[in-house]
Amino acid sequence: xxxxxxxxxxxxxxxxxxxxxxxxxxxxxxxxxxxxxxxxxxxxxxxxxxxxxxxxxxxxxxxxxxxxxxxxxxxxxxxxxxxxxxxxxxxxxxxxxxxxxxxxxxxxxxxxxxxxxxxx
Length: 120
Prior knowledge:
The protein is an all-alpha fold and 120 residues long. It has one domain (2-119). It has two helices and no strands. Helix 1 (2-68) runs antiparallel to helix 2 (73-119). It starts with a helix and ends with a helix. 6% of the residues are buried.
């Protein structure tokens, strides 16, 4: 009877190890997939910020030129202003993403340090 219990206990421990291994591999796969998807989204955001800035400057200059009859001077002034605004938006978004990534890393390091202290 004890032999049956020890063999089922060994099988149960082996099953738990395999389940833990499978769970960690699925979590790792999900992290990689989520990171890639969010990177595509972030890249699209950067491109759209840049394009919208340029287009906004262009159309503001074009509209004011039509309204005031100063063609092409306001278009030539507002298009570079729109470009600068788009570039500044891209820089701000990149800095924000970098700060967010840094905070996530330090939180993860802090959690790992707390877990290591508890083991002692």
